[in-house]
Specification:
This protein has ten helices and five strands; from the N terminus they run E-H-E-H-H-E-H-H-E-H-H-H-E-H-H. A five-stranded parallel β-sheet has the order 2-3-1-4-5, with helices on both faces. Helix 4 runs antiparallel to helix 5 and helix 5 packs antiparallel against helix 10. The chain is an alpha/beta fold and 208 residues long. The radius of gyration is 17 Å and the shape is globular. It has one domain: P-loop containing nucleotide triphosphate hydrolases (Rossmann fold, 3-Layer(aba) Sandwich).
Amino acid sequence: MKKEEALIVCFEGPSGIGKTTMGELLSDDFNIVPEVNLLFKRTGNESKFWYCEKQVERYEICKKSSKSSILDGDIFQPIWYNWVCNYPPVFLSKEETHNFYRTCLDEERIAFPDLYIIFETDVEELWIRKERDKKRQRRNFEKHLKIIEPLKEYYKFLDQKTDLEVRFIEYTNIETTKEKVLSTIKKNNKKSIDDLKVFGQIEDWISP
């Protein structure tokens, strides 16, 4: 795939569903970009915008790749996650979060992925997968289970009300899910999106 045809695909879904595992399975053919806390190390002297700034760096890694990229987690995650958590004091405020992303979009330092793939499964299965995965502790797992519904609500909004490409895939066994993912990516065509318009739609939806 030529560089100008390379796609940026984002995997999203509940903690423990298998986003990282699926990325590892596809690493021969795609540039896999891990989530922020796996890709970057904290020093203890980070600015309060560090997490958002690292999302921009993840986007830059995608743009520099000659292969299509898969993001393990949304580069716009602070937008919906901070909203879901009701902007606690330890997070950036809504104004700070939105101003950061709006500025980066305006400066073309970041853009929405060409395709979102949202993985789904039931909560009981998530607990089983968490217990099987001995590599990661998954702190605040129960808290993350509580955000599954608002997460789905957010991406359904993107799918139904914006020009973004969003596909929901039931994460069953690995091989079947892998086939669905590859088929979904193959069918996707890169298209021009007005990112600032989409962002404005998101802002209006979050702040009616």
